[in-house]
Amino acid sequence: MKNRTFFWFILPSLMTMILFIALPIGSIFIQSFHIEHGAVLKEVNNCGPFGCKLEVQVDVKASEQLKNDKPLGKFNGFGTYTNRNHLAVNEVSEAWEKSPTFKDFLTKTYNLPFYRALAFTLTYTFVVTPMVLLLGFGIALGVNSLPKQFKGPTIFVSLLPMIVTPLIGSLILFWMIDAEGILGSMLQWFFEDPNLSLKASPTLTWIMLIIYGIWHSAPFAFIVFYAGLQTVPMDTIEAAMIDGASRWERTRYVVLPHLVPLIVFILLIQLMDNFRVFEPIVGFSAQASATSLSWIIFNDLAGGEGSFFGSAGATSVLTILGVAVLLIPVLIRTWRDFKGKVV
Amino acid sequence: MFLNKITIAGAFIVLGSTAMAGCGISSGNVKILSNDFPAIQSVTAAASACSGNGVSVEANLTKDHKDIMVAALTANPAQYTSVITSNSTLVTLMNDGLVRPLDALVAKHGAGLNPSQMITVDGKIMAVAFGANAQHLFSRSDILNKAGVSSIPTTYEGVLEAAKAITSAGLMDYPVALNTKAGWNLGEEFVNMYMGTGADFFKPGTAEVAVNNDHGVATLNMLKSLVAYSNPDYLTYDSNATQAEWEAGNLALATMWGTRGGAVLDDEGSTEQVSSNTVLTGAPTWGNNARPASTLWWDGISISANISDADAEASFIAMMNGISSDVIKANNSDTVWLGVGYTPGPAQAGVSATAADGAAPYPMLPFMGTLHGALGAEISDFLQGNESAEQALADIEAAYTAAAKEKGFLQ
């Protein structure tokens, strides 16, 4: 394709990408370097139905001019990134110097909100992603060997977890695993422990969220693998059968190598998706035991009264960096494959 | 026939004009943003009756009102002309100068209001309160009797003793509940309990937090003793969950919002045994302090700053119509109404008792919301037994300080 034609060809998508991806990220980046202007406080007498009290209020007029001149706020550099609620540089280095053992250092670091969220986010990503690949591949193989008339309905049922909106799916499960819900009471009966509660212990909450994640994402891997299985060359399979390859050997040496590009694709999408885990934490009311980077951003924007735009911006930028670091190995591999193929 | 038609038509005109006289608005746009509970539904429904004849009244009732109010009122013209605020949300709006003083409007249209309804800040009326709310004690008299507890506890130490009696009598495993869902709810429980010590949250006149002290430690320990008698899922319990547990008969002693009183006492959603034995009393005190461990809240009307004066006046008149004594009389059991025409009923006995016992209002401080957020996030670790009370308080202080610097309250 001529360069000129190529340019006109991709111009519309380039424009939309700049408008909807590059500009918002740029604005988040700029916002994360700013904090609000110093508030001028004054003591005034507040009265209401429950009496009067001398209380501090913000003197809005005093900083009005400053706010109009610099609506972004006060420039703070990397101050928000390094403060206690984010990377906590001072707290971590102090913990490093003062902790007698490495375990003590980890405990102290885990007490900081950002690292606590990072710990869950990474655990979730690295457990859910391989499990989704395995389970999706297993279901695809199973469905592929079903008689023709059962395939349609089975595929539909297998896709259901992905069709349900994540927040709704997790809310439904939240009530099912309640001590009085169907799953919760079955578990109590099974383990003969009337006090067993999946919502009470952090460990069980983590396991529950991870199982939810696998349940929700496996259909995606399944449908991609199932489509891939339809393209496996039959003559190679038949040749392998004539050579006496067992079912396992055929899967291992013919089917799997054929599906490698799909595995890389699912890996890429799942790493990105799982790193920004969010809905199940809200749906399961799990924030006491598990938080994620995306949940912190949400909490900064909508957790209480008034929003922390600088904090939310900083965590967003850190999340983007995290995704980039995770994806680099996969991208390098894809690039090598690409270079190998193209002359 | 002809005459009849004329009389009917005439009657309609008269009715129409009286309706107009009732509201007294000839033109203007009224858009209301508010939380969503029964008292507010009554108020906005009555205010909406003013629409027609060139006046439009729209209301958006959502429990997420806090998340959108600042952005919606910062726009010029503001997206809502009136916000139904409370102690905490009014301060958030005032921090950015988004609501206007109401002195002139009250002088012109507020003849029927009680003086105590005025929320004045630095001498200016910033909101007109119409209802009061507080968390207080709900008890099951039948369960307490069976456990041999003769009277309803008035202190949290008494609540603990009663809970112990109930569990050791084998009546219930988890008789106690507070609204302890991690986040805002849990933060509110700390605020309530700390209020009961009589100590201040901040060093006077500054934004420096002052909860990292003996009062803070005692508060955390009391909360931990109480949740020991709560269902292990307590960190997921918000006010909908505690009400459901109460109505299911699973609780004997609970601290819940006054606005839940009506729903608990009515004949829906529960059995006769639960609703007839539910007793509403004031919030308990603790630690030999006189002040009840609760915070008083008001709900009131505020008018946006960034709108035309005509719309502001129309909104104020419509809202006055929403909180008129007719509305109060028709919806008497919705809340503790502060306006003329309210008769105290059994569903509000707990809130009234809490106020009469001398509970303090939720602090109207610009940085209280920031502290509340830090409390809600940092306490759960202590309650789960992962860290000491001292460590939890140090975490609260550190989290608050970092957040308050970002908000510009601390330098």
List keywords for this structure.
heterodimer, A: 343 residues, mainly alpha, MetI-like fold, 3 domains, two-stranded antiparallel sheet, 15 helices, 6% strand, B: alpha/beta, D-Maltodextrin-Binding Protein, domain 2, 2 domains, eleven-stranded mixed β-sheet, 16% strand
Which chains have the largest interface? Answer: A-B, 56 and 71 residues
Number of strands of chain A: 4
Major sheet of chain A, described briefly?
2 strands, antiparallel
CATH topology of the largest domain in chain A: MetI-like fold
Q: For this structure, what is the CATH class of the largest domain in chain A?
A: Mainly Alpha
| Count, helices of chain B | 17
Measured as a percent range, the helix fraction of chain B is 40-55%
In the CATH hierarchy, what is the architecture of the largest domain in chain B at level 2? 3-Layer(aba) Sandwich
Structural write-up:
The complex is a heterodimer of chains A (343) and B (411). Chain A is mainly α. Chain A has 3 domains: 29-74, no CATH class; 78-104, no CATH class; 112-341, MetI-like fold (Orthogonal Bundle), CATH 1.10.3720.10. Chain A has helices at residues 3-31, 64-69, 79-82, 89-98, 102-110, 113-144, 148-163, 166-176, 182-191, 202-229, 234-242, 247-275, 279-283, 293-302, 309-341, and strands spanning 34-35, 41-48, 51-58, 74-75. In chain A, strand 2 and strand 3 (51-58) form a beta hairpin. In chain A, helix 11 packs across helix 12 (247-275) and helix 14 (293-302) runs antiparallel to helix 15. The radius of gyration of chain A is 26 Å and the shape is globular. Chain B is α/β, with parallel strands linked by helices and 411 residues long. Chain B has 2 domains: 25-133 and 296-354, 3-Layer(aba) Sandwich (D-Maltodextrin-Binding Protein, domain 2), CATH 3.40.190; 134-295 and 356-407, D-Maltodextrin-Binding Protein, domain 2 (3-Layer(aba) Sandwich), CATH 3.40.190.10. Chain B is 45% helix and 16% strand. Chain B has 17 helices and 11 strands. Chain B has helices at residues 2-23, 38-48, 65-74, 87-95, 103-109, 141-146, 156-168, 184-195, 214-227, 239-247, 261-265, 272-277, 309-322, 325-330, 349-356, 368-383, 389-407, and strands spanning 28-34, 55-61, 82-86, 118-121, 124-140, 176-178, 253-257, 278-281, 295-303, 336-337, 360-361. In chain B, strands 1, 2, 3, 4, 5, 6, 7, 8, 9, 10 and 11 form an 11-stranded mixed β-sheet that branches. In chain B, strand 1, helix 2 (38-48) and strand 2 (55-61) form a beta-alpha-beta unit. The longest helix of chain B has 22 residues, at 2-23. Chain B is globular and about 65 Å long. Chain B starts with a helix and ends with a helix. In chain B, 55% of the residues are buried. The chains are: A mainly alpha (343), B alpha/beta (411). The interface between A and B is large, with 56 and 71 residues.
